[in-house]
C-alpha cells in the first residue's frame, strides 16, 4: 500500500513537471510553435512520458487551461463567499480577478492566442466564460435585466476586459505611461480605478 501511494505521488510530481514546462513554453512561444518533444525536454522527461500522461499536445494544452480555470473559478468563488452590498461584492470580485491575473500572466495570453487562431481550447474557453459570467450575474442579482445593454453579460464583458487588457497591453503601455503598469503601484492604481468603475456603473444603474 505504501509503495502504491509513493508511486502515485511520483506520477503526480512528474505530471505537474510536464504541465509547468508546457505552461511556460506555450506562454512564451504559442501553441503552434511548441512540440511534445519541446515540452519533454523542458520538463526533463522522455517524450513517451508526456504521451502517457496526456495522450497528445492538444490534451496537454487543455489540461494547462483547465488548471487555470479551476484556480480562476476558486478565486472568484472565494471573493463572493462573504455577504455584503452589491458594490462590496463586486469590489471583491474585481480584486479577486486582478489578483488571479497578476499571478497567472500567461492565462490571458493563452485565451487570446486560442480565440485568434480558433485553437483546440476554444470550446473549453467558451464553456468557462459562461461559468464566469454567472459570477457576475450572482453578484448583480436582480439589479439588471436578463437581456439588453444593461444585462449581466454586458457587465461581465466590461469588467473582464478592463482587467485583462491592463495586463496584455502593459508592455506597450509602459512608454506612454512612463512607468511599469505591472509594478505594485501600477496594479494598485488599476485596482482603485476598477473600484471607481464599479461604483460609477452602479450609480448609473440606480438612475436607469
Poorly predicted regions are none
What would the average pLDDT be, to the nearest integer? 89
**CATH T-level fold name of the largest domain:** Tetracycline Repressor, domain 2
Strand elements, count: 0
Morphology: globular
**Helix percentage range:** over 70%
- What is the string of SSEs from the N terminus onward? HHHHHHHHHH
| Structural class designation | mainly alpha
How much strand content do the residues show? under 5%
Output the CATH homologous superfamily of the largest domain: Tetracycline Repressor, domain 2
**Helical run tally:** 10
Can you name the CATH architecture of the largest domain?
Answer: Orthogonal Bundle
Description:
The protein is mostly helical and 208 residues long. It has two domains: 1-55, Homeodomain-like (Arc Repressor Mutant, subunit A), CATH 1.10.10; 58-207, Tetracycline Repressor, domain 2 (Orthogonal Bundle). The protein has ten helices and no strands. The chain has helices at residues 2-29, 36-43, 47-54, 57-79, 86-103, 106-117, 122-140, 152-168, 170-177, 184-207. Helix 3 (47-54) crosses helix 4 (57-79), helix 4 (57-79) runs antiparallel to helix 5 (86-103) and helix 5 runs antiparallel to helix 7 (122-140). The radius of gyration is 20 Å and the shape is globular. The relative contact order is 0.09.
Amino acid at each position: 500500500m505504501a509503495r502504491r501511494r509513493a508511486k502515485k505521488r511520483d506520477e503526480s510530481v512528474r505530471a505537474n513537471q510536464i504541465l509547468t514546462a508546457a505552461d511556460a513554453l506555450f506562454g512564451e512561444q504559442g501553441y503552434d510553435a511548441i512540440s511534445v518533444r519541446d515540452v519533454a525536454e523542458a520538463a526533463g522527461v522522455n517524450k513517451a512520458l508526456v504521451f502517457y500522461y496526456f495522450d497528445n499536445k492538444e490534451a496537454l494544452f487543455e489540461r494547462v487551461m483547465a488548471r487555470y480555470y479551476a484556480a480562476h473559478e476558486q478565486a472568484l468563488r472565494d471573493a463572493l463567499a462573504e455577504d455584503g452590498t452589491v458594490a462590496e461584492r463586486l469590489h471583491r470580485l474585481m480584486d479577486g480577478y486582478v489578483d488571479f491575473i497578476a499571478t497567472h500572466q500567461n492565462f490571458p495570453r493563452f485565451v487570446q492566442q486560442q480565440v485568434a487562431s480558433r485553437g483546440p481550447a476554444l470550446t473549453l474557453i467558451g464553456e468557462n466564460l459562461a461559468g464566469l459570467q454567472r459570477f457576475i450575474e450572482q453578484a448583480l442579482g436582480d439589479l439588471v435585466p436578463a437581456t439588453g445593454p444593461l444585462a449581466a453579460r454586458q457587465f461581465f464583458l466590461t469588467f473582464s476586459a478592463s482587467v485583462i487588457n491592463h495586463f496584455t497591453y502593459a508592455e506597450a503601455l509602459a512608454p506612454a505611461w512612463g512607468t511599469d503598469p505591472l509594478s505594485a503601484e501600477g496594479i494598485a492604481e488599476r485596482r482603485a480605478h476598477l473600484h471607481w468603475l464599479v461604483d460609477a456603473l452602479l450609480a448609473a444603474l440606480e438612475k436607469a
